[in-house]
TrEMBL record:
Residues 309-325 have a biased composition (Basic and acidic residues). It comes from the Bacteria. GO terms for biological process: D-alanine transmembrane transport; L-alanine transport; L-isoleucine import across plasma membrane; L-valine import across plasma membrane. GO terms for cellular component: plasma membrane. Keywords: ATP-binding, Nucleotide-binding, Transport. This is ABC transporter related protein. Residues 19-299 form the ABC transporter domain.
Amino acid sequence: MTVTDTTDRSAPAVGAPVLEATGVTMRFGGLLAVNDVNLTVREGEIVGLIGPNGAGKTTFFNCLTGLYKPTSGQVRFASAPKVTPNGSRRATKNGGPTTESGAVELKQPAGSLQPLPPKPRAVVRAGMARTFQNIRLFANMTALENVMVGRYCRTSSGALTSVLRGPKFRREEAATRARAQELLEFVGLGKSAENLARNMPYGDQRRLEIARALATDPKLILLDEPTAGMNPQETKQASDLIFKIRDSGLSVVVIEHDMRFIFNLCDRVLCLVRGEALIEGSPGEVQSDPRVIEAYIGTGEDDDEVDPDEAHVQDTTVSEREGNA
Ligand SMILES: Nc1ncnc2c1ncn2[C@@H]1O[C@H](COP(=O)(O)OP(=O)(O)OP(=O)(O)O)[C@@H](O)[C@H]1O
């Protein structure tokens, strides 16, 4: 069996840290779900988070994105500079740019690392976006409207302006619509703008969620099981899209059970087992570590089992990837 993936996997040079988790621990009563886990994500990196069911991946993800406040430890994130009307950038007090122009670029350059803002909305404004394991679209809204909803954290019209639909509101609305359409095209859904989300195929709904997350102008996007339930063709499209997002200048963290997907995609992989970091390294290092294989086989989970044939395929791919770098 050979790998026919033609995507150029050579990663751009990684830059400064955009996210740093130190000693993150999360307890639910007597249950230690995450224990003293560290992770640094740099500009331009795709980092994978793997582990058997119940390993603590989603809990750690929720700590990284500010949904959970860790019992102990710290998460720090690079503050985004603000885009001023004349295009220059300056640091903001609480995070990301408030662009009205619907600028084409996705990338938000990193600033200094600071503790996460306390409220999830402020985390989004600071430049961190995420998707969830279960699709959370507005089913009765069109694809375009779903993306526009994501964009509203970057608009500044107040309630009164919105009710009166004044010139400022109309300008922002037009820019929001244009940017949403642009993002739909970016994820390959340009022709589906007017389709109701609930009528879209499953793989398209997943891409729509990513477009909505991108609408917040993140510099880091976290994807929780983006290929869950996808067929091989949709999975390949998801992988291509994530490379494209990385190539546009964002950093990506991704949880996935599909080992082949993760090892083909990521620059670095962290494996959690029973809430603890078992190993962090290149895909080659992680997939050949006997403890990782044991952790999966030990669970008896068919989905996660490391097939020796697959391992061979992955080895080939990783050497090709390292050859490309
Ligand atoms: N809100 C919660 N309250 C209590 N226990 C929780 C909560 N969330 C998760 N847990 C427990 O914490 C542990 C880690 O769960 P988590 O969902 O983070 O694992 P996971 O690696 O994401 O698993 P999966 O791959 O199945 O999604 C599990 O034992 C789970 O039952």
